[in-house]
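User: Design a sequence. Structure:
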């Protein structure tokens, strides 16, 4: 009997490898799958896609994320109820997509994600979410306006309705480009109005002909205690020819220089020495050409000193310093500073200068007896801050 057992065992041993290579029920498919020659049931199924966030009342300010298991992401579109999109990027392995922009408050979004498996199974997943309304909205007033041609000292300036406590978050969303890689920096200031403000200025005056564009991608950004931004802002402008107005209050004269050459020198009368009627010194940038306006001394804290219509008014500071026609001071032009702080000149000279200058032109004012240097927030006194100190005012340094 033992001999028979040996033969049976031996036969079983011989048959075993044959069975392993024989096409039994289902075994051929498994073998082909192991060698990559077939498709498993798992690969036939669509990829599993997860979208976050989802639902209603989602807190704004977060990114949108799409992940996939069992397949690769081929495209993602995130569109709000006004047709605007949140761009994003698919990871190198195809398993994750994250939006570059943040979800804005009070907005509904539709997320459409497309995937494909190794076996070529394609699928589309749609998900919807809505963000909660903002408790407070922060708005922006900016200069210069789009398509403007401005002078070589014009900064880009954004003034905010509400305080900006997260300055770094806001500054990161500001995309400024120039046609010639101009060196410059953002700086946070207090505007004359008391509001938060951020300006960008070059290290030196702009090169004429430079084209500048700003995209303030603020929609969905939380400014901190001041609330949320609910839109983007943009502007594009060009730098005009090089013009500098040089004002010497000691000599009582003003000279317009164009491309480094004096065009005309005219006699002026500046602010009266020894008190509150003195002029400011330093670099003031022409804010606006306001034409004929009413000037009332009560608006600048000088009591009832004057109340009159003034022609060819060129605003230099928010505190009320102008260059303008001042026919009532004719006898002092070129001889004495007798104004209430402005730079006055004859009607003819004021009309000529008014026609020559443009917003953004620098007025470089010097004089021994003045109120002090124009502050950065008083108009565009940015150029009175040394470059290193200016750069240090960025929230990202």
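Assistant: Done.
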């Amino acid at each position: 009997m033992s001999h028979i057992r040996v033969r049976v065992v031996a036969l079983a041993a011989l048959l075993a490898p044959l069975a392993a290579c024989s096409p039994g029920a289902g075994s051929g498919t498994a073998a082909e799958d192991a060698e990559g020659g077939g498709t498993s049931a798992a690969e036939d199924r669509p990829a599993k896609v997860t979208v976050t966030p989802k639902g209603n009342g989602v807190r704004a300010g977060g990114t949108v994320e799409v992940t996939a298991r069992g397949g690769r992401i081929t495209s993602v579109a995130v569109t709000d109820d006004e047709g605007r999109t949140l761009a994003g990027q698919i990871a190198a392995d195809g398993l994750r997509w994250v939006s570059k922009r943040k979800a804005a408050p009070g907005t509904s979004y539709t997320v459409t994600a497309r995937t494909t498996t190794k076996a070529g199974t394609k699928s589309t997943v749609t998900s919807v979410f809505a963000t909660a309304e903002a408790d407070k909205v922060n708005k922006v007033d900016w200069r210069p306006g789009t398509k403007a041609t401005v002078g070589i000292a014009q900064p880009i300036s954004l003034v905010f309705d509400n305080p900006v406590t997260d300055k770094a978050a806001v500054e990161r969303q500001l995309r400024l480009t120039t046609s010639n890689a101009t060196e410059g920096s953002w700086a946070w200031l207090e505007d004359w109005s008391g509001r938060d403000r951020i300006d960008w200025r070059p290290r030196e005056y702009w090169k004429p002909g430079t084209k500048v564009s700003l995209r303030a991608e603020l929609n969905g950004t939380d400014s901190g205690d001041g609330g949320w931004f609910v839109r983007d802002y943009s502007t594009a402008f060009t730098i005009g020819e090089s013009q500098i107005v040089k004002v010497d209050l000691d000599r009582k004269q003003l000279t317009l220089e164009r491309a480094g050459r004096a065009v005309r020198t005219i006699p002026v009368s500046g602010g009266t020495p020894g008190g509150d009627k003195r002029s400011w010194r330093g670099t003031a940038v022409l804010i606006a050409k306001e034409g004929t306006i009413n000037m009332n001394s009560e608006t600048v804290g000088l009591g009832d000193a004057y109340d009159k219509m003034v022609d060819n008014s060129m605003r230099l500071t928010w505190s009320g310093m102008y260059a303008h026609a001042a026919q009532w001071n004719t006898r002092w032009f070129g001889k004495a500073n007798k104004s209430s702080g402005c730079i006055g000149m004859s009607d003819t000279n004021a009309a000529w200068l008014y026609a020559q200058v443009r917003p953004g032109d620098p007025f470089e004012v010097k004089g021994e007896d003045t109120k002090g240097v124009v502050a950065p927030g008083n108009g565009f006194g940015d150029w009175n801050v040394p470059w290193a100190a200016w750069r240090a005012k960025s929230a990202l340094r």
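Helices lie at 2-21, 27-34, 41-44, 167-171, 347-356, 387-391. The longest strand covers residues 122-131.
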